[in-house]
Structure formats: structure tokens, C-alpha cells
Amino acid sequence: MLERRLLSNVPWGMVALIIGIACFGLMAVYSATYTPTGPSSLFTKQVIWVSLGIIVMFAALVPDYHTVGRYAYVLYAASVIFLILVALVGKTGMGAQRWLPIGPFAFQPSELAKLSLVLALARYFAEDPRRGGYGLRDLAVPAGMIVVPLMLVMKQPDLGTALMLLFTSSLVILLAGIRFRSLVALAMIGAVVATAVFAVPPVRTKIWKSLKPYQQKRIKAFLDPSSDPRGSGYHATQAKIAVGSGQTTGKGFRKGTQSQMAFLPERHTDFIFAVIAEERGFLGASFLIVLYVILLLLGVEAAKSAKDKLGVLMAGGIVSMLSLYMLINVGMAVGILPVVGVPLPLVSYGGTSILTTFLAIGLLLNIRSRRFMLFY
Amino acid sequence: MQQDSPEPVQRRLPLLMGFIILFAVVLFFRLWHLQVAKGAYYYELAESNRIRPIKIRPPRGVIFDRKGRPMVENVLTFDISLVPEDAPDLDDTINRLAQVVKMPPAALRKLLDEAAPVRNKYEPVKIREEAPWDEVAVVEARQEDLPGVIVEPEHRRHYPYGGMASHQFGYIGKVTQTQKKQEQADTGMLVGQGGLEKTYDKLLRGIAGRRMLQVNASGMKVKDLGIEEPKPGTDLYLTIDLDVQRAAEEALGARAGAVVAMDPNSGEVLALASHPTYDPNLFPRGISPKDWVRLSNDPGHPLYNRAVQSVYPPGSTFKVVTSIAGLSEKVIEPDDKVVCKGFITSGKKSFRCWKKGGHGTVSFHRGLVESCDVYFYTMGDRIGFDRVAKHARDLGLGSVTGIELADEKKGLVPTAAWKQERINEPWYPADNYMNAIGQGFLQISPIQNCQIMSAIANGGVFYQPRLLLRTRNRETGEQKTFAPVRRRELAMDPRVLELVRSALVGVTTEAGGTAHGAATPLGTVAGKTGTAQVIAQKIPGQKLTESTEDHAWFIAYAPAERPQIAVAVIVEHGGHGGAAAAPVARKVIEEFLKNARTQAAQ
Question: Which domains does chain B have, with CATH numbers?
Fold first, then answer.
């Protein structure tokens, strides 16, 4: 039950900010999916997803986050099972197996896996008696927890989500505390691996060949988008044109030629930010970024005010995840990062992404609301 | 659940905060760079993404004669074309259209395939050019059954007088690859490939219009953004007088040759004819290979503009130049006498006068009027040809006149030095003889010869011979008239001019004159005949064939008192100048004077 005291502690400003961003996103999806005969059914679906998401967000406020923490491993196990199921019976799209059909909907377990991995890691480190300063050997268990879903997602293959899993959990480990020496060692291992991958021809060839053709193309296109503007560089080039052509004030709602004339691919999902930038201009696009930054910093604040290690790690992990999503998605739309399929949280079209994001944010609100509580 | 102090973890939170802020700042600057700093550039890119212009050909400028009568015009014809993108079921449309134009469907597909690599989306493919009326009517009436099929009005170049003046006009044809680069012309565009069509192509061409289509990413039309009308080409008014031109062409008839008529007071070319002619109407539709082979292999060289591109020995017309040289240099005096016995000897060789019995005792006036060869052999040798050559060059020989027609020939004025260099032989007295009467090495074009007459008529002024009188912008009606250009003024002794002019009048009027055939009641004609030998020595008793017969020249101006027209005529292998060429000049002069008189009366 929601107690009165809890209700008064809910950060309503933050809630308003979240719903504001979601509405901004809904308008963009409305414009990006508009058809000659009127608004698309995709928009209606998205409205339903966002509404459900808001309910999920409030629902996530109800149980104590410690209860959620208690189920973290269960949730983690469930998403791993889902990922295995995807590998067995998943729906194929864009050369990858990513979706599980559930009735009329397509459920994307990799989205859920990201959140559950964060929660599981938070619980693991919260229960660990040591106060940070982990060495490499101490990280064996968390590394195992990361590697299982990572490999399964790689197998789909979904390079974008795999990278997100890796980056998000790295941030959680950094927060949990890693010994400086180990960090340096990890960085060096990373450097050696990267050098091997890029500079040793047999290794490079092997890794290169293990990538799907469309992944190879996207990497090539990022390194030199002009090499094939009609082919692999198309996404990146068209997104850049869309963003740039919005100029300062934008072309106006539903007046973006890149978006409306379908020059921009994936415009309601991965490239929704380009639609916003084209139609709302520099003012609108940077306004959205500012909203996000405020939301994320409020999230950091929630972590800072959390009463215990579980709260801090959960909140910190969720904020890390959301920041990476937002920054990488926008970075990709403006052409400073390669094109990897990462949705813009709260904005991109897609049920699983919307619901997971609202669930994550609900937990964030949960932790924030319980900042004055005492636990024994 | 194990409880632990959150404090150590919280100490590391600023790290996360810093990461967020740093990354956001980077994004912010990147956005600023793309949208504000380079926004205009990307806006252009987005516009060219969505807007597809389709060229609309402008009608070429019309060419009129000096009195405003159209000599080259555009005829509106209708082409049946197909826009494959507008046909929802292309095969169905092709099959139906094939029936209308009575062509096999495979032929239509072939046309589409051929056009595919060079064509932009929504650019119509011509299926039937200059479609007959019944087919056009069917397409118009059955528009619904033939989606994607359109009737395109096209302005086709038409030369209503066929071969008349064809060499001035030249012709138009598909733009060549090199021209495409040089002149930024589009594929399939028809541009001038010869004559005035080429010289004034930039004016005549006009500016293409555009139909702007908004398209989506797959290139399909979303909407019509409107039409930018083409700007038609500039109309040209030529110096040519259609009547005089026609008179010249009719007088030449089937004979090969050329006529140039010029206003000596302005350099305006009144007529310029070259025979045989070709029909420029063969070209605008793309000349058939058969026609092209026929034209280019024709022994009569119909594509050649003899008036400016052919050079001939001037024959006796050159005696005018020799006279001017001798009198100006004061080497000969008008009263100096030469006895003509019908021949003259130099060393072992004997040189004949055209008049077998000889002219008897001859002074300057009779020498030129009767064209006595012995008189000019003698005087030519006395002057020395290098001095004659100087005067010949002063009179414009050996260099192009600069008329706005391509590939003009400059001819040849020989000198002793030239002969030494070219054939490694010294200049003999015989060379003085032969060149003084216009045989030997001299080569001149009809327009050069006309220019000499023009200068004598006007007292030594060299106007730039030209064909363009004025231009008119069809849209604004704005006219631009070109004033005569005095290129050069030759100081001529009035005494010399008087002597030469009076002898030239004598040629058509006096008892022994060689060109009575040029005389007309409409005005006094001053002129000089010429009979240029194609082979040096005739074999007695052998009849000359068509290819060995002499070229007939006549150069003239009229009226002698107040000259208004200068003419040069050459009839290839026409025989005697007085008999073959003089009547042609007379007809041209008569037509001109008749018109001038009616105009004056009005």
C-alpha cells in the first residue's frame, strides 16, 4: 500500500519531467509515422505503450525496492531463459533474431535483460561485505553474470545491445568500486585486445568475418560515410542531412522533408532524434537534451540520497543505463558514433523499450521516494 | 538483507555526473555545428534530395531576313511520349500504346531500355516523334486507358526555303560529347552544328525551363511544385535580303558556284549563296546515316560553303588589283601604250592574249575595259609582283574577312620569297605575267573578291562583312541593333580610284567591254569579268569537259554613281566570265535596285 508519507515523498517534478519527455516523444512518433491517409496505427500503439508505461512506473513505486532486489536474480534468470528462447524460436528481422512473439506483440527480451542485469549486479555488490576496492579475481562472479546474456545477445546478433550491456555493467562495477591497479590492468588488457583486433591481420580478419555483412557495412560506413552514400553509408548520411537541415528553428511539425519523404530510415525508432532535430531545429533538439540531462542528474541525486548500498547501486546502475542509451542514440543520429541499433529512451517507438524504460524509471522514483525511510 | 553503508559508493557518483555532463556538452556542440554552423549546407542537401527538376526545352530563336521575313522557324509538332513512373501497370500501358502508334510492343520496350541509362526519373521517353494527328487525338481522348502516356508539344526547327541560304544557316544536331562539356549542354539537346546556327547558338538556344517535382526516397512523385517556364531563344534579323538571296540562287540555278552581295556602305551581306545546296531540314530530326553518307560523299560537296570556304584563281578580276598597284606606285601612267599582237614572248616562251588577233595599241583604260592580257603581262612585269602583292594584301587578300561563319579560307597571295620557300625556285618574269592576270599561284575566295569591289565603290573603307543586323528578345521585345564596324581604311589616291572606276563602268557599257551581259536599265553597273583557267594550256581542238572548263568570275558594284551593292559571282566551270557570271550578277543587282526603288517610292 502506498502510505501517505511515501506519496508526499514522491518527486513529482521528476514525474512531470518524465511525462513531458514522453509526450515530446509521442509527437515525434506521430510525425514520423504519419501516412498520407492520416496518423498511423503505430502512433496509436505507441500511445497505448506510453500509457501502460506510466502505469508500470507507478506500479514500480509500490513495493519496497528491497523487495525488487530480492527478486533480482529471479528476474535475471528469467531474462536469460527468454534470450535462450529467442535463439530457439525467435522472430527474425534485419538479419537478426531478436523478438519473441507473444500474441499480437513482439517481445524483445534483450531490452529486459539490460535492466535485469543492472538489478542483479546491484544486488550482488550490495550483499558483498567488502567496501569496494575489488581486484580482478573478485570480479569473476559478476563477470560471469555479464558474459551469459552478452553472449546470447551477440549470438542474435545484436551488436548494439551487446555493447550496451557491456558499457552499463562496466559503469556499475566502476560505481561498486574497483581497485585502481585492476582498472589499469583491465584498461591494458582492453588496449591489447583492441590492438590485436585492429592491427594483427589474422585476428582482424577472423573478427571481421564473424560479423554479419550488415554490421561490417555499418562499421565501414561510419569510418567513411561518403564511400557509398546510397548503400551502407545511407543511414548515417541521411540522418546527418536531416539533423543539419533543421537549422536553428526547424522546418516545423510534420514539415521535415527528410522524415516525411522517407529519406530517413528507421525514423520512428533508432533515428527519431533526427526527426526531432529536423522539425524542431537546434532549439528543440537541445531543449530535449537539456530535459534528459536534468532527468539524469535528478537520478544521480536519487542515488546520492539513497539510504543503503542497494539503493545507490540500483539507482546508479539505472542512471548509467539511461544515460548510455540517450547519449549513444543521439551520438549516432548526429554522426559522431557508428550506427548501432539503440533506441532513444521514452521517445523511440517500441513497446518493450518503452515499458522497460518506465519500469527502470519507476524504480528510480521508488528509491528516491524512500530516501527518508529506515531499514532494519 | 545485509545492510552496509552506501557512503563509499556515493563518493563515486560525481564520476557518473561528470560523464553525463561531458557527453551532453559534446552532443550540444555537435548539434550546433550541424544545425547552426553548417545548417544552410545541409538544408541544400535536403532540398536536392526531395526536389527533382525535369528540363523543358526552350524554342530556339527564329531567324528573319532584314525585312522581317522568317527564314528559319520553329514548327509546333507533337510527340507521343511515355513516363514509365506514371504507369501503374507498365506492361499494360506499353501494349495499349503500341496499338495506337502501330509499333510492336518490343520496339517500345527497346526505346525505354535505351533511354534508361541517361534519363532521370519522370523524364518522358519519346516513343513517336512528330506523331500524326489521328494518333495524337487517340492519346488525348483515351488518357484514362493510357496512364503515363503524354503528348509533348515540341518546337521543331524548320527551314521553309529548303536549301536556300542553307550554308549561312548551317544546321542543328544532337550535342556531341565534347560540346556537352564545353557548353554545359544537356544530353539530347539540339545545338547548332554549322553556320549561323552554330555561331549564334548561345543566343538562339534560350534557357531551359524546369518542371519541379517533389519526390520521396524511392523517387516517386509526391506533388508538382510548379513549372519554371523556359526562356525562348533570341530572334535574329539577318542582313540578308530574301529577294536578293532568291535572285542569286535562281540565277546560279543548277550550276556549282557562289554569289556574295554586300552593301559597300556598311558591310552588310545582302545575299550569300553557294551551290549545290543541301536541305537543312534533314538534320533537326537526326540525319539518317544514308543521307549523311550521300551528302558527305557527293562530288559536288554540297556541305561546303563556297562563298567563304573555297578559294579559286581570280583570273582577270585580279587585273583590278594589278591596276591599282601600278597606278598607285606610279609605275604605269594612264597614257602608257602597249602594243598587243595577240601574244608576247619572254625568252623562249610565248604568252597569249585571250584575243587571238590582238588588241592593237592599248593604253590603261582600254586595257582594263577589254581585259587585254598583253597589256597586263607588260605592266605586271614592269611593276614587279612583290609590289602587286602588297596592294593585294592591302585590299584584303590573303587574310580572312572575319565574317561570322566558320572555317573561312584566307587564300594565297604569292611573293618571290614565298615561292623560294615553298617550291624552292626563283621568281621568273613569267610569274609576273601569270599572276598579274590572276593566274598562277593566286587563290581568293568569292567574299574576298566582293570585299575588293566594295572598297573600290566606297573609296577604300573596309567594313566588317557581317550577317547579323539585329537581335530581338522575344519576351521583352527588346532589340539590339549592330552598327557597321569600320575595320580599316585604305588611303586610296582619288585619281587612281577615278581611273579604275571609269574603266569598270566601261566594261559593261563601252564597245569593247567584256561584260555587256551585266548591263541593266535600272542603273550603271561597274564590273570586271574573269575567266580562271582550271588547266594552264588548252590543247587546240580538244573540247573542254565539265571538270576542265574555266571558272567564270564577275565582280561588280552598282549604281556606279552612288554604289549601293557590291557583288562577286563565281560559276565553277562556267566558261567565260562575261557570258556565264555577268548575267548572274545582273539579276542580283536588278532585284536589289528594283526593291530599293519601290522602297524609295514608298
Answer: 53-238 (3.90.1310.10), 242-601 (3.40.710.10)
The B526-532 sheet, strands edge to edge:
B269-275, B257-262, B565-571, B551-558, B526-532
For chain B, what is the total number of helices (H) and then of strands (E)? 22, 23
Q: Is A287 on the interface with B (CB under 8 A)?
A: no
Measured distance CA(B15)–CA(A33) in Å, rounded: 38
In a domain, A12, yes or no: yes
Those residues with Cβ within 8 angstroms of residue B80's Cβ, 6 or more apart along the chain or in another chain: B97, B100, B101, B126, B127, B128, B131, B135, B136, B139, B149, B150, B151, B152
SS3 at position B472: strand
ipTM summary value: 0.91
The helix (run of H) or strand (run of E) holding residue B352 is strand B349-352
Q: Does A283 touch chain B (CB under 8 A)?
A: no
Helix, strand, coil share (%) of chain B residues, nearest 5: 40, 25, 35
For residues B551 and B534, the answer to whether their CB atoms sit within 8 Å is: yes
Cell of B514: 567584256
Q: What is the DSSP string of A278-333?
A: HHHHHHHHHHHHHHHHHHHHHHHHHHHT-SSHHHHHHHHHHHHHHHHHHHHHHHHH
**DSSP designation for B279:** -
| Span B22-49, pLDDT tens digits | 999 999 999 999 999 999 999 998 888 8
Does residue A102 carry a pLDDT above 80?
no
Domain around A87: 4-369
- In this structure, is residue A131 part of a structural domain? yes
The verdict on residue A376 lying in a domain is no
Helix (H, G, I), strand (E, B) or coil at A35: strand
Tell me which chain B residues have a C-beta less than 8 angstroms from the C-beta of A245: 39, 42-43, 45-47
Nearest-CB residue to A126 (from B4, B21, B31): B4
- Element (H or E) spanning B584, and its range? helix B582-601
Tens-place pLDDT, residues B100-122:
888 999 999 998 888 887 777 77
